[in-house]
Amino acid sequence: MIDYSTEAKKYDASRGGEPRAEVAAEAVERLLPGEARAVLDIACGTGIVTRRLCRPGRTVLGVDRAPGMLSLAAERLPGGVVTGDATRLPCATGSLDAVVLVWLLHLLPDAAPVLAEAARVLRPGGVLITTVDKDDAYFGAPSDLAELTGPLRRAYAPRVSDRGDHVLDLAAGHGLDLVAETTFPGLGQGRGPRKWYDAITAGHIPWANAGTPEEVAALCRNLTALPGQEVPRPDPLYRVVALGGSAA
After folding, report:
1. Total number of domains constituting the chain
2. What's this model's pTM, rounded to 2 decimal places?
3. In a domain, 74, yes or no
């Protein structure tokens, strides 16, 4: 797991910076109900997306457990961030109109406790907005990388914590059903074979880690044989879903 406090100062630049934050916030905004007045952004990180959700008449609170991230978020949202764990939120039951989870569930061994806690703090009729299927976002468009990595990704798929159908099943157990969805591009985040090779050999790619040593070695050999080692393949297209229940 990445040490996000250590990573904080370079986090934004390494994840697409302001342009990607802008399109991410626009996607979330498309799914937020117009009447949402109390919004919680779980794992808000540096607050680069969170601050874009602020509107007159809307209170937005960011929560994160990494002190390094929160120190930067506090500069963007003075008085609007708090230290907290996604499984023990510092919010009253039924107190929020919307809960936002951007780029969190894919990091977890089990999404269930976080989804249960998010459902707890939502008021009846509230909306949970979350990214899903992050790994697949890089391979939605046909490419040599999508074809080459397909077997390992498919073998790992049942273990993916943010797999869309899995998240929807968990949410349904809390009375939350799919009400809307959208996508946004990971601007400038497309990777060439060399970057995938570096990430895999550094142990940063869960679906590759799940392969046998022989499978991973073969994948790495094949990656180095692809043309255009430094040429980025298509930018990822991230999926965001809104999950809501009855207001009654």
Report:
1. 1
2. 0.90
3. yes
